[in-house]
Amino acid sequence: MWRPEAETRDPATRPWFTRLDDDAREAARRLTKIVPRPFHQLGVEASRRVRFPVLQRGPEVFDVRDVEIEVAGGVIEARIYRPADEIGLPMLVYFHGGGFFLGSIGGVDALCRGLAVRSGCVVVSVGYRLAPEHPFPVPADDCLAAALWAAGHAGDWGADPARVALGGDSAGATLAVSTAIGLHGLGAAAPSCLLLAYPAVDLTFSAPSWTEFADAPLITTEDARWTWEMYLGEHGADDPRAVPNRADDLSFLPPTLVLTAEVDVLRDDAAAFANRLAGEGVTARHRRYPGVFHGFFTELGLYRRTGLAVAESAGFLRQVHRMP
């Protein structure tokens, strides 16, 4: 367990530090002060007490409101962003990251505002229940229920139920793939596309990035092992809804954009996942953003490349949904 008097980590001494751009170097230094020990050493409760500064509120949106969604065994929160007072808009159902045990709709508020305004999508941000209190399949079931709810209520928010995309970052991206797999299993309408920022899709820990960036900022290799163990509990290790790469066939997935960070333990698995989808006939594209580390996609106002990634994501959504 972390002790306050313990020596903190200096990111500048790490080999990967020279690969970061100026924005990311400064962010790594600040992050070390906010989170002086890896999450697996802090533990669940101490990790949840960490407060990250809000650097940018995000753009104004025509309408933002919080709702509740009934799911099996409880109620979850969601936040809906309407970019305009129009009907027939596409929809993006978004799942936040946080290693399956952290995160909230508030943590991705600025990002969802930006995606709504730039993509023209009604964005539904989902606050699924978290591990370890709610291990798999609860978070996956919550996200599947939320996606079905969003499609069923799309008209209430001026959205087109035939154009519902799924997206997320990190664990949320994993849950987006899980939801697409779940929809396919139910015989429900497929999502229009998938927007995946550095998804966790594999349990082998064999790709080079797991070693090369084992102590990189925000998520270390041991953090990842720890969060997977909490999420999977005694079930799910062989279930594709938990670990997408365990699926025998993913050819049914819709057009997919995979974003990765250069300095990230998840980088190589996520890139290989995009290649796998393309090999199975899915329209899949992978974009690696240089000079940044895990978590950059949600940090509007911190990295220049975050704005570029959001713009690329919005362009992808507009292209798939045939919007000008």
From TrEMBL:
- Statement: the UniProt record of this protein carries the keyword Hydrolase: yes
What organism is the protein native to? Glycomyces artemisiae
What are the protein's UniProt keywords? Answer: Hydrolase
Q: Pfam families in the record, alphabetically? A: Abhydrolase_3
Q: Where is the Alpha/beta hydrolase fold-3 domain?
A: 92-297
Q: What is this protein called?
A: Alpha/beta hydrolase
Q: Which GO terms describe its molecular function?
A: hydrolase activity
Q: What Gene3D superfamilies does this protein map onto?
A: alpha/beta hydrolase
Q: Does the keyword Hydrolase apply?
A: yes
Q: What InterPro entries would the database entry show?
A: AB_hydrolase_3, AB_hydrolase_fold, GDXG_lipolytic_enzyme
